[in-house]
Design goal:
Layout: H1 2-5, H2 62-73, H3 91-122, H4 128-144, H5 148-151, H6 157-165, H7 171-196, H8 211-234, H9 243-262, H10 268-278, H11 284-305
InterPro entries: Aquaporin-like, Aquaporin_transptr, MIP, MIP_CS
Main location: membrane
Transmembrane segments: 94-117, 129-148, 214-233, 242-264, 284-305
């Protein structure tokens, strides 16, 4: 055991609580299945070297094998909670970083979706509904894997509203988040329009069904998105490793369901940005009302049924 201990220390795993409005430190959750785990960033601090350890010999006695395995297992990299945003970072600067992350994330998401739609229109349906839905789902997947540790990766005013109502986002952050998301969408819409010069400006979300049908489609699809997000991002018992794939798959699924009927917005910023860029505001109220209500209902439904 003396040789086993040399050059390595047993890893201590801690699961600090998620950031609250009283603290400006973003902590790292090491074990995604820990009792109090939340979606937060992580970083490995490799203080050990596993290369020097060898596997146990099957011919060894069971006690020797157990001792050997205990020693070998200690060689894994030590995992420590490391704050990515230091305590001396004031609240205003922290909020600024989060707002910038929301702006950039929303910009990337909307630019990707609109570019795919325009390519489909300009090249005789080469992308197809499946291609557009896949593009939206993939964009959401990679974005969830990127700035989620900074801002939570909302990219959607409906999500921010729902998270604020249920205590997962400080109320003081709601307006800055929503402003950044709408500005990111608007910037992406104008840049997309300037690059591609679309003929029919089909990037705006305009219902192709009746008002009631459009309202309930947007309500239900947004409900589904927030039910999934709330389950995976806020429940400590959920499989955090799957959140990016699950959210991306949900967006893709909903785009296939509602894309031909309403454009499958599920996001007020997705509707407002292209509407400003194209000057088309047809039945925009449907998207402004149905999506926040669906988001609130989706989060509320999971809060009611969770264990």
């Amino acid at each position: 055991m003396e040789g086993c201990k040399s050059g390595m220390e047993a890893a201590t795993v801690a699961a600090p609580p998620m950031q609250t409005s009283e603290s400006n430190e973003i902590s790292i959750i090491i074990s995604p299945r820990a009792a109090n785990s939340k979606i937060m960033p992580f970083e490995l601090a490799n203080d050990g070297n596993i290369g020097s350890q060898s596997h146990a010999n099957p011919a060894e006695p069971s006690d020797a094998r157990a001792t050997h395995w205990h020693c070998w297992n200690k060689g894994f990299p030590e995992i420590k909670p490391i704050p990515l945003i230091k305590k001396n970072l004031n609240q205003h600067k922290l909020l600024l970083l989060q707002v910038i992350a929301e702006f950039l994330g929303t910009f990337i998401l909307i630019f990707t979706v609109l570019s795919t739609i325009i390519m489909d229109e300009q090249h005789d349906g080469v992308e197809s509904l499946l291609g557009i839905a896949t593009s939206a789902g993939l964009a959401m997947t990679v974005l969830v894997l990127s700035p989620i540790h900074i801002s939570g990766c909302h990219l959607n005013p409906a999500i921010s509203i729902s998270m604020a109502i249920f205590g997962h986002l400080p109320l003081a952050h709601l307006l800055p988040y929503m402003t950044a998301q709408i500005l990111g969408s608007t910037a992406a819409s104008f840049i997309t329009k300037g690059i591609y010069h679309p003929v029919n400006l089909g990037i705006a979300t305009i219902p192709k069904v009746g008002t009631v049908e459009a309202f309930f489609l947007e309500f239900i699809t947004t409900f589904v998105v927030l039910f999934i997000i709330t389950a995976l991002a806020t429940d400590p018992h959920a499989a955090k490793e799957l959140i990016a794939v699950a959210v991306g798959a949900t967006i893709m699924m909903n785009a296939l369901v509602a894309g031909p009927s309403t454009g499958a917005s599920m996001n007020p910023a997705r509707t407002i940005g292209p509407a400003i860029a194209t000057g088309k505001y047809t039945q925009i109220w449907v998207y402004m009302v149905a999506t926040p209500l669906g988001a609130i209902a989706g989060t509320g439904a999971y809060v009611v049924v969770k264990l």
